[in-house]
Amino acid sequence: MTASEVRVVAERPTPGTPRPYEFPDVDRSRLANGLALVVADLPGRPLVSATLVLRNGAVDEPDGDGGATVLAARTLTEGTEAHNAIELVEASERLGASLHAEAGWDAMSIGVDVPAARLEPALELLAEVVLRPTFPEAEVDRLRDERLNDLLQAEADPRRRADEAFAATIYGGGSPYHRPSGGKRETVEGLRGAQLRTAYRRGLDPSRATLVVGGDLSGIDVRGVANRLLGEWGAMFGARSSGTIVAENAVRERFVRVLHRPGSVQTEIRIGHVGAARRIPDYHALSVMAAILGGLFNSRLNTKLREEKGYTYGAGAGFDLRRGPGPFAARAAVNTEVTVPAVLDTMVELDRIRSGPVTDAELKAARDFLVGVFPLRFETAGAIVGALAGLAVHDLPDDELARYRSAIEAVTVESVLEAAVAHVRPDGAAIVLVGDADAFGSELEAAGLGRLVIERDKEPQDKGRDEGVDDGLGPVDEGTSGPTEGGSEPEGDG
Amino acid sequence: MPTVPTVSFTDERLATGLRLIISVDRLAPVVAVNLWYDVGSKHEIEGKTGFAHLFEHVMFQGSRNVGKAEHMALVQAAGGTMNGSTWLDRTNYYETLPSHQAELALWLEADRMGTLLDALSQENLDNQREVVKNEKRWSYDNRPYGSWYEKLQGHLFPPEHPYHHTTIGSMDDLDAASIEDVSAFFRTYYAPNNAVLSVVGDVDPDEIRRWTERYFGGIPSNPNIPKLGDLSLPPTLGGERRETVHDKVPLPRVYLGFRAPVFGDHRLDALDIASQVLAGGKGSRLHRRLVREERIAQDVALVALGFVGGASLCAGWATVRPGVPVDRVEAALHEELDRLGRELISDDELARARALIETEELAGLSRVEERADRLSMYATLFDDPDLINQMLPRYLSVGAEQIRSVAGEVLRPDNRVVLTYLPDLPPADSAVRDEDRPEEERPTEPVQAETDEEVAA
């Protein structure tokens, strides 16, 4: 065929009338012991999701117990007063349920996804692992060793090395965010059942916990079931943490840290600094700004580094919004030869986003995306439950999700610039690279980006620069990772 | 037992041969538009590996009425998400949008199906070639154990078979791809009679039909799409193949690969259940024995990847704990796989596997994007989109004897590849030691597996 035979329509279609969408109605109540109950009845969603959020995260543990909270969560399903680990997993599988417990920086969550008809027995298992775990020493030993092995594995993975080195670079040693949420070798080695129990009890206060249940709940008395299973739960928590999160910034002025990885065909780039917490007044402006800088496919960074230069499969930037100020990072993996030009291009974009207003077209594209994609994010019960759990983790108002789209619509060119000026600081950024320093070291030095440190230890199993734990709390962190969430993050496990 | 809701749909063809499948679901104001082309890396010839995937990237570089990367801009500004991916048997493109934006996705897909070559330039091709090379580095070459998947595919399929090479292809072939190659590929395979379009969600079917006719109706079919030759293969390898790889990894890992029945063969359904029993989560046999009880492995996995052309691929692995002899882990893997081929699994194991698969199916079908993709898949590969409703009953009908039988046929010593990764102290890249087939190995090329190649990670 030839092009002349083809008939296509040049005129672009105009959108139809949007069908109204509202975030599902949510029923909120408390049990007598203070446990918050959040229920979303979602007709037509037969796969029900339930999550119990305890507000003790890795950020709440003392430095010497680093990793205890994450390991404690993993151990919850390893044995209870009534059942051993195998009995628990088999019981869960018979229900077709995935019973899981995990912790991240901000919280511990115990969740289950199960067909609606089997919700009650699944919640029975959930309550059992939350209220009656035994932390069997043999299982603790095994999981601790697995974590230590995972730390070994992380050393070989350039992505994980870069992420861990970046965190350890930008946060001072007095901040928990300096270490991986799963802990470093020195602290993980010392973890036993006692420390895990302490970490677990830190969150075991029903008046600070939230149970979120979503799905097609017709004919199910969720409150009655919750009351039966969790109503007797009394406050048996141990010492709470102070609640203050130290996020001291260790970067005085811009500098470059290279972890030499001989023969590496790509360089993992992380450029950034201590960022923002989730509860900030300019959250929505920050979200739009981050989408323009490094969240959308056609973000400034991805357009420059990928679509113009071909340096990378994907470049992006974003804020990891935690209870305390999490990191801000621009990231890309680029072929070794273009390492320095890619770093320079990234720096140009970090400067540009804060030195002048975005265009109206950029603003509109980002706002329209974040507003339009909102219903798509909440197609499943699991996603809705995750977002609601995120509100509990961050103490956000009940109407946070309902008002999200209008708040995004209200973001202006000016507020984007203000957010960029407030939250992006290229002059105080750490530039962390994992790659073959022999290939680009002198070029990097000549680029004059700041003090340059090249680390050439080839047996890098010494320090806990890396972490094996997925910091995502799964569903709980949904809605908390902020600006880039829901977007097509140009970098991820595609 | 909860029942998985039936997916109802219509199935028709335009005069040009474009197959249109529509499934209405008004639960949420969203729509999924999904287009499968019946072309994948199996259609590549020697010297042109990686081409189908590179081409997929070019499909986002503009067409007559759409600028470079404008496809993404328009879809995201409409509040949608999109991607494309390439795999051995197919290439797909998809958008998920608020439902009132359905027409935009149809227009975009039609414009590039009809007029991609109008916008094709050397500059855009060169740009995406570099992006794809960085995708290969990121997904395979710069990853610990990254070469395992390419090696398994290379061992399990003979050099003359198109599954011998991976979808990402080789750097040399990517470098050699020319504008003429891209044009020829487009003219040959990107025709309406080689595609299935599925639209799922909150839509008016008549409107979708009208738009599809309006935007796609003027794109001529290609009556001369070449048919692939006979891809059939002997059901087993006919002998064990072993290879030891020294890599920059801290812990040894043993990979196993097996040739398996083709996708669509009921025996592959049974093998899926067998994989669940062996390695599907913390209750599975391998996890229980190697990770929990004997504590000789850090992790275990087993998965069957369904292909339609001659044979599928079943792959598994175990990461060896420090200080544990690699042989011991390998022997334990073989013992458990072998036992599944000799003894019937218990009623309880079968019931648990079925319950988990049912929940998995419920989760998979809960999103319009996944439903649209499956409808396109079953129509493209089997000419039977209703398989979307038949797969769960098929899985649930698998009995203990079928599991024993397929395990005995597939998971056997004379049908397996054993790849052993060992920590490498000297610089890793040069240290591949191939015990069986040195001439075919390219030491520096890792791979990842279960995923196909996508345009945007």
What does this structure look like?
The complex is a heterodimer of chains A (494) and B (457). By secondary structure, chain A is an alpha+beta fold. Helices cover 37% and strands 16% of the residues of chain A. Chain A has helices spanning 68-76, 85-94, 119-131, 137-156, 158-170, 185-188, 193-201, 222-230, 283-295, 300-308, 339-355, 360-372, 374-377, 381-394, 404-409, 413-423, 437-446; strands at residues 27-30, 36-41, 47-54, 98-103, 108-115, 210-215, 255-260, 266-274, 312-319, 327-335, 430-435, 451-455. Chain A has a 6-stranded mixed sheet with strand order 1-2-6-3-5-4, with helices on both faces. By secondary structure, chain B is an alpha+beta fold. Chain B has 2 domains: 10-216, Cytochrome Bc1 Complex, Chain A, domain 1, CATH 3.30.830; 241-448, Metalloenzyme, LuxS/M16 peptidase-like (Cytochrome Bc1 Complex, Chain A, domain 1, 2-Layer Sandwich). Chain B has helices at residues 51-58, 70-77, 102-119, 122-141, 148-156, 171-176, 179-189, 205-216, 266-279, 285-293, 326-342, 347-364, 368-382, 387-396, 400-410; strands at 10-13, 19-24, 30-37, 81-86, 91-98, 195-201, 241-247, 253-260, 297-305, 312-320, 416-423, 453-454. Chain B has a 7-stranded mixed sheet with strand order 1-2-6-3-5-4-12, sandwiched between helices. In chain B, strands 7-11-8-10-9 form a 5-stranded mixed sheet, sandwiched between helices. In chain B, a hairpin with a 6-residue loop joins strand 9 and strand 10. The radius of gyration of chain B is 23 Å and the shape is globular. Residues 426-451 of chain B have low confidence and may be disordered. The chains are: A alpha+beta (494), B alpha+beta (457). At the A-B interface, helix 2, strand 5, helix 4, helix 10 and strand 9 of A face helix 2, strand 4, strand 5, helix 3 and helix 4 of B.
